[in-house]
Amino acid sequence: MKKISAFLAASAVYFAASSAFATGLATCDSGPKSTWQPVEKLEAKLKEKGYTVRRIKEDGGCYEVYAFDEKGQRGEFYFHPVTLEAVPTKSR
Amino acid sequence: MQNNLPATQLVWNLGIRILHWTLAVSMIAAFATHESGSVWHEYIGYVALAAASIRIVLGFTANGYWRFSQFFRGISTTVQYAKDVVHKREKRYLGHNPLGGWMVVLLLADTMAAGLTGWLFTTDAFWGMEWLEELHEFFGTLIMPLLILHLAGVIFTSIRHRENLAAAMVHGRKKL
Fold first, then answer.
1. What is the pLDDT of residues B109-128, one digit of tens each?
2. pLDDT of residue B79
3. Chain pair A-B, CB pairs under 8 angstroms
4. Cβ–Cβ of A66/B127 closer than 8 Å?
5. What is the pTM of this model?
6. Structural domain of residue B74, as residue ranges?
């Protein structure tokens, strides 16, 4: 019984530790968050370009965007949160 | 010809062994590549998904030790077996014992769940969905504790019955 409890406890710690997840296709040296532009601005800019945005999250100090580009092509795009410039990603 | 080796029987045929090690290698490789978001993670996932699917189909259609009904037992039989283990009086099974049977089913189910959620995430319909990504991460993360339980079971049973079960999954033969 002790061994089972220890195993369950270790599993719980392991699950908690593994929740911090980054795909890590790019990193941005983006400084404090107070200097970042709002997500909404990036979303508006992308919509203007003809993108369909599914989701924007933070990854490696960048904004990571799950979207379809103007040609309807599915993609994971990275943008610098201060400049909102596209960040080149490592090839998958 | 005289030989003094103990009588053995082929328990794990070549197909079971190939699928077993394909699943083992692909799931560990998928786990190792999960952070990179690489195409490799995707391809490895498809290998695991294919292997698990084939195993499940054969579990219902093939005969002998392939068959789920050969080794899958209900809760009460499994609990009784676990009690017997605690009291060191469990019987030896040539195929999977009842606890091992549950392990097989859990490992296959988790592989299918991780594989299907991972694949769905790459489809246009589910692209970028946060709940799906989290579900995939949960199933992917779960494979490690399951693998540890599996190895613990193999080592424990090997010691208890003085046979090398890992080696049996390589050459396929077990003592009668």
1. 999 999 999 999 999 999 99
2. 97
3. 39
4. yes
5. 0.87
6. 8-175
